[in-house]
């Protein structure tokens, strides 16, 4: 097993000899199995001759007024152990003075219009702070590859955009969301949930899976429709399929034509509406079906990659989740 070095300064990191590629996994600590998956993936990509560096830094610029900076969990000893078990060569855990030696930076990265939507609307300034520290850490760690979880889909999209727009010489890799057995997406904030709150929180993944199932049924309907000749028989077949789908979910079909994004949203919304009546209730921030290139809502007729995203509060804990979908894949 790799003996993982704990480094506090960029000079220590730069002094390390390396032959292969450096892969970096950026975290705010409180590492869990989702982070372990990122580290193991980085190890596979970097290969035996490469180097895997895990950053642990709780970035104050990402926390708005009233958010949980002070109570955000800090578990460096446990983080170092998990990183070592997952194959990291080094943990870079700088202090605030190392990352922001002159105090809070006057020059920052702006997330632009995409950073003002969804999570950006709920947490003003959050993505500017996130991109600023990601830019700083990319410069401090000098990686060839940087890996991020798809659970933070808007964050991943913005990092990709920044790297492309500002010509960072680094490859960005997105790693699929890791879930617990009950479907809840792994998050450092899950530890804040009581038993009852956790039961309510499962509505996030239930809603996404309901939208995914609706989407799969619609795509199957589209495929079957294309297989039927353009005759009277085709019209009858489509009518029969439509009646079957309506019987399965009248509410969703009433709002969208077969294959439409509105039906996916409606199916997901039903699960969230049910959770709003639980004790404790789920309080929805947003449910959105968006184009991952700019996080604007997609409309009927859309084809290509999409993200079904949700954010909600249970008690005092705010949770986010999403799943990727592809519309018109068989076209």
Question: How would you describe what is shown here?
Answer:
This protein is of the alpha/beta class and 331 residues long. The protein contains eleven helices and ten strands. The radius of gyration is 22 Å and the shape is globular.
Beta percentage is: 15-25%
Number of helices: 11
Number of strands: 10
Q: List the strand order in the largest sheet.
A: 1-4-3-2-5-6
Order of secondary-structure elements: EHEHEHEHHHEHEHHHHEEEE
Main sheet makeup: 6 strands, parallel
Which residues form runs of ≥5 with pLDDT under 50? 250-258
- Structural class computed from helices and strand pairing: alpha/beta
Overall 3D shape: globular
Please, what is the average pLDDT? Answer: 89
Radius of gyration: 22 Å
End-to-end separation: 47 Å
Could you estimate the helical fraction of the residues in percent? Answer: 40-55%
Describe the structure concisely.
The protein has 331 residues and is an alpha/beta fold.
Strands, helices and their partners?
Layout: E1 5-7, H1 10-14, E2 22-27, H2 33-46, E3 51-56, H3 76-86, E4 90-92, H4 96-99, H5 119-122, H6 126-141, E5 145-149, H7 153-165, E6 171-175, H8 195-227, H9 232-248, H10 250-255, H11 261-275, E7 282-291, E8 296-297, E9 304-314, E10 317-327
Parallel strand pairs: 1-4, 2-3, 2-5, 3-4, 5-6
Antiparallel strand pairs: 7-8, 7-9, 9-10
């Amino acid at each position: 097993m790799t003996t993982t070095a704990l480094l506090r300064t960029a000079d220590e990191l730069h002094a390390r000899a390396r032959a292969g590629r450096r892969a970096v996994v950026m975290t705010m600590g409180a590492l869990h199995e989702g982070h372990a998956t990122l580290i193991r993936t980085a190890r596979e990509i970097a290969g035996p001759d490469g180097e895997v560096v895990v950053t642990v830094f709780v970035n104050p610029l990402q926390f708005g007024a009233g958010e949980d900076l002070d109570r955000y969990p800090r578990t460096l000893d446990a983080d170092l152990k998990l990183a070592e078990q997952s194959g990291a060569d080094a943990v870079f855990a700088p202090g605030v003075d190392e990352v922001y030696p002159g105090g809070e930076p006057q020059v920052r990265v702006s997330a632009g219009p995409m950073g003002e939507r969804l999570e950006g609307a709920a947490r003003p300034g959050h993505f500017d702070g996130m991109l600023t520290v990601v830019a700083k850490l990319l410069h401090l760690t000098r990686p060839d590859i940087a890996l991020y979880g798809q659970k933070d889909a808007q964050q991943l999209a913005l990092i990709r955009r920044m790297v492309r727009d500002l010509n960072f010489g680094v490859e960005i890799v997105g790693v699929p969301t890791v879930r617990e057995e009950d479907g809840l997406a792994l998050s450092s904030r899950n530890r804040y949930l009581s038993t009852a709150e956790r039961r309510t929180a499962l509505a996030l993944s239930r809603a996404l899976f309901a939208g995914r199932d609706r989407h799969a049924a619609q795509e199957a309907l589209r495929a079957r429709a294309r297989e039927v000749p353009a005759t009277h028989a085709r019209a009858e077949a489509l009518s029969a399929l439509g009646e079957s789908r309506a019987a399965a979910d009248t509410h969703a079909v009433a709002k969208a034509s077969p294959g439409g994004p509105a039906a996916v949203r409606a199916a997901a919304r039903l699960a969230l509406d049910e959770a709003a009546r639980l004790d404790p209730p789920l309080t929805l921030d947003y449910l959105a079906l968006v184009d991952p290139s700019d996080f604007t809502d997609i409309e009927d007729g859309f084809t290509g990659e999409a993200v079904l995203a949700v954010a909600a509060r249970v008690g005092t804990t705010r949770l986010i989740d999403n799943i990727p979908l592809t519309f018109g894949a068989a076209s």
